[in-house]
Design goal:
Length: about 270
């Protein structure tokens, strides 16, 4: 189905696309599952969520935060077999953030609530079953794109207005560092870490949030981003997930505002 502002992650040999908006702005409970050849309906979410974020940890799908019919959520869910179980809620409700898995933990960075951008970052330890606050994101913003690079969990872009900024939390030193700016400002883009350790970012909206950004850039090392051409079908409002060695962009909006599509493309 056509959707945007959904979460995406891969686990157990399958790609999951979860929640999002439909064309009239409904916060969706739908979960769609791709096994490499066909899509099927998966276990529905406990509540409708848009602007949520997903990550894979120990080959299990987690989903945190988002907005549910305009209300902010701090809830954390994990897919266990054919059902979702609820774990400890984040300290800070947020949507338009990034949930990033690294070194056995989940990091929630950026996003906003009904009144403001959320500054504090936080980390979930599945062994302790609890969240811990981290030093705040140096430049709080929403509609960020998350990825891992070495010992860094990073958020790229975001708004408002859309920015080229990339901030990374180094979980070894417990401090924030700046990474090279993106080639072009973007918000609502998709980012991921490829199997070779490099990062990639696709799509989003321009700085004025008036047009869709066709940016396709890679970070092969921490010195500079490399423009790699244009996104095949430019969109915003999707998460990029690595499945079968490729980074998949499924759904998203083809124009600023609510213009969801069912398009799914992938890059190496």
């Amino acid at each position: 189905m056509a959707l945007e502002e959904s979460g995406a992650a891969a686990a157990g040999g399958k790609l999951y696309v979860m929640g999002g908006f439909d064309a009239i702005g409904t916060s969706l409970r739908n979960v769609w599952v791709f096994d490499g050849s066909a899509w099927s309906a998966g276990p529905r979410l406990p509540l409708g969520l848009d602007h949520t974020s997903a990550a894979t940890l120990d080959d299990r799908v987690y989903l945190a935060g988002g907005h549910t019919f305009g209300r902010d959520s701090a809830r954390l869910f994990r897919l266990d077999g054919s059902s979702w179980i609820e774990l400890a809620s984040m300290h800070h409700p947020r949507g338009g953030h990034a949930l990033i898995a690294a070194a056995g933990k989940l990091y929630a960075i950026g996003g906003n609530n009904a009144s403001a951008n959320v500054g504090p970052a936080e980390v979930f330890d599945p062994n302790a079953g609890a969240w811990t606050d981290l030093p705040p994101l140096p430049s709080p913003r929403n509609h960020v794109s998350g990825f891992v690079f070495g010992a860094n969990v990073c958020v790229a872009g975001g708004r408002s207005p859309a920015t080229t900024r990339v901030d990374c939390f180094n979980f070894e030193s417990s401090s924030w560092v700046r990474f090279p700016n993106l080639p072009r400002a973007t918000s609502g883009a998709g980012a991921a870490t490829l199997d070779n350790g490099s990062a990639v970012i696709l799509g989003g909206q321009n700085a004025q949030e008036t047009t869709i950004n066709d940016q396709f850039a890679q970070l092969p090392d921490p010195t500079a981003w490399t423009a790699s051409g244009s996104m095949l079908v430019p969109r915003h409002g999707f998460e990029l997930a690595v499945f079968e060695g490729r980074a998949w962009a499924c759904g998203g909006g083809s124009l600023p505002g609510l213009h969801p599509v069912a398009t799914c493309t992938s890059v190496l």
